[in-house]
Fold:
Amino acid sequence: MDFSLTEEQAMIRDMVRGFVEKELKPKAAYYDESKEFPFETLKALADLGLMGMTIPQEYGGANVGTTAYSLAITEIAKGCAATAVTTSVTNMVAEVVHEFGTDEVKNKHLPRICSGEYPAGSFALTEPQAGSDAANIRTSATKDGNSYILNGQKSFITSGAHSGITVVWAVTDKEAKRGKGISAFVVEKGTPGFIIGKNEEKMGQRASTTNELFFEECRIPKENLLGNEGDGFKISMMELDGGRIGIASLALGLGYAAIDYATEYAKGREQFGQPIANFQAIQWMVADSYTELDAAQLLVLRAAFLKGEKIPFSREASMAKLFATETARRVTIKAIQILGGYGYIKEYPVERYHRDVIVTTLYEGTSEIQRHVIARSIFGRKPA
Structure:
């Protein structure tokens, strides 16, 4: 069993790491404080080939695979989680358009996503009454000649205010069984009847906009349907599996960034006449943190490998997201504890890492939903 990275994967990781150290880390605290959407940084990441990492080169993508994508998101998150989540979701949108879009839709939008002409892409599934219960959405899409007319509301949509395109899920058959009458559509920014609502005030990842979206008699061409009518719920579940790899990778980056900082701090902070790194209590917190993060990364890379090989990976993605996000949350708390009172002060980045990591246990499926997916895959098996 070979755990080594390919030369290309290692090169991409190192390239992103260098960019993050030079360009992103120095700006992260400013982005957090100002809540300014990082347009320039996202364009620079697109120029590096990071906005269409699994998309074929004919559409402007890098086509470097899911493992390289995971490594890149982890490195970006070490610098700025808001930038990392925007990058992750944009890649997710590019992937769903590539897999299910018509040739017309793919040729029109994928090059604009991959090049950074579109600052971001959005994935609009969640509604006020449909979070974990995604089959309960109420946004409707009614066919009218060569168009569909959308009406409804979406909530907590990442990059909703700045996306060139938004993938929107809506009910096309109200009489169908639960989850069977949902379809997915591409909606372009500026389409009449597509209204951007408020940007939510959040605890963390503050430079990532999170918007309400409204659709009021919003007419879109029938060619913007992804897949077939009624395929929407299946498409969303497939794409969420991939999205969980991205969020797990993001959480890893935050966990590593927090414990890296705390470890260096412990080497220089003296109490009782010696560096606190000499005390077993600190050493064990550091040892446990790196052990758990490395274990989490193995789960994440396993899921990424399976996805890249087109092997079923739903359970593995849920395991990766559950363990990586919960681990990273624990590690950021330990990092704050190592810094003591300084860990609670904004001058030091560990409090930001903790605020940023909390939401990773919530979006792309809560930790409770991941446990449900894992348990269902185990208990649903037939006896050998």
The longest strand covers residues 147-158. The domain at 7-120 is CATH 1.10.540.10 (Butyryl-Coa Dehydrogenase, subunit A; domain 1).
